[in-house]
Amino acid sequence: MTCCRPILTAGAMIAAEKRAIDAGTPVETLMEHAGAALAEAAFGFVGKMPALILCGPGNNGGDGYVAARHLAERGVAVRVAASSEPKSEAGKWARGRWPGQVETLGESTDPAPLVIDALFGTGLRRGLEASLLEQFLRLNRSAQTRVACDVPSGVDSDSGVLLSEISNFDMTVTFGALKPAHRLMPAMQRCGRVVLADIGVAAGSDWSEIGRPALPQIDPEAHKYSRGLVHLLAGKMPGAIALSAKAAARSGAGYVRVSTSRSIEGLPYAIVQTDTGQINDERIGCLVVGPGMGDLPQVLSLALTSHAPKVIDADAITQLGEPERLRGQDAVLTPHEGEFVRLFGKLEGSKAERALAAARRSGSVVVYKGPDTLVASPDGRLGFAPPAPTWLASAGTGDVLSGMIGALRARGMAAFEAACAAVWLHGRAAEIAGSGMIADDLVEAIPSAFDHLND
After folding, report:
1. Which residues pair with 117 in a beta bridge?
2. Alpha carbons 261 and 259: distance in angstroms, whole number
3. Element (DSSP H or E) covering residue 299
């Protein structure tokens, strides 16, 4: 992947900041960088719109005081309202450098066209007090534009859970790294555009936002088999496997073949239909099983005898019974929420933690689908999908994703990288297909999504 923004939990971010401080960067310098970046992003977003900055007692509030000073220096009419006096030393430092008045946040606080929320940042574990929440929501409802500092107040930054009622923000400015809540529902929906600012903290992580993929180049001497043979196993519902097969072909596989006991109408002539298994063909780059399989466990059992890399989706996930059956397989699992629970049970923790637990237990890459799709690897890597169009929530789009992953695996990409790349391209294809799309339209948009990689 390329252009991957790191993602850190609150604890990991605190540790990264401590390393920077221990290396000689004062906390006040980090706060100055954060507040300046918040002001820069807000000014670039709305210009000189009069602003009300809501400051809390911690370092998030300190960022707000710094932002207020920088916006005022740009000629913005800025007011600051605080829920309480700063409690951290850095917050007190920032408050002392703000030359203007500080109102007490309450019923007498007048609204403003721009509200910047710097009340509470990462690490919050309980909801806002009722009286503060009432004023917070009132001022947000009255604003034309809402900007959050790090995360909207009332969000659990590690899980994306809403601890309080939250308004929809237009933009969230975060520092050093994204936080899980920026890419996990329901918080993701409330964050708006997420801007990442570099404040001088090294924030490497095994968790990252899935970025624009770097795909393997096609060898000038390639032939159909070296470009990748994808073999798909059909079941009771041929339409689903047809979507997967067409998606594999559109995603650059050199050869796509479907094992089926009956002819599947509507498949391009370029896709070979065969009534024999041929699953031990050493030329197979990836095997796809599950879309449209129905209650045919023998199809899954046949697939598991193959040594080829495989994508396991839909009915095949349900038919697995135990995830340990995948030990020793080179597999990518693509469950939605219901399939995930049927296979792994109701695991504890955030969606990110559940995805990683499932990957470790199965020994497979797990694409945990949904409006906040995650790609988890047994080695601890975790990819968070960027926001994708809501109209992907329609029948057949998961079958398309399976075919795309199969093609990229067959083209030589490793399982985690292929799954992440397919998730990114799947979202872009949906944008191109438009809100009225059906899964068939999504397939046709795949080549244009690949073309966008060269933009």
Report:
1. 54, 148
2. 7
3. helix 297-304
CA torsion through residues 46, 37, 35, 169, sign: positive
SS3 321: coil
The tokens for 207 are 């968790």
Instruction: Give the single-character DSSP code of 371.
Output: T
- CA distance linking residue 97 with residue 62, whole number of Å: 10
Q: Quick check: pTM over 0.90? A: yes
67 Cβ neighbours under 8 A, 6+ residues apart: 35, 36, 38, 39, 42, 53, 116, 118, 149
| Contacts of the segment 16-25: beta carbons below 8 A, 24+ positions apart | 16/176, 16/177, 16/201, 16/202, 16/203, 17/176, 17/201, 19/201, 19/202, 20/200, 20/201, 20/202, 25/200
Closest CA relative to residue 146, chosen from 112, 99, 174, 180: 112
Q: Give pLDDT tens digits for 83-142.
A: 999 999 999 999 999 999 999 999 999 999 999 999 998 989 999 999 999 999 999 999
The closest alpha carbon to 273, from 285, 258, 261, belongs to 258
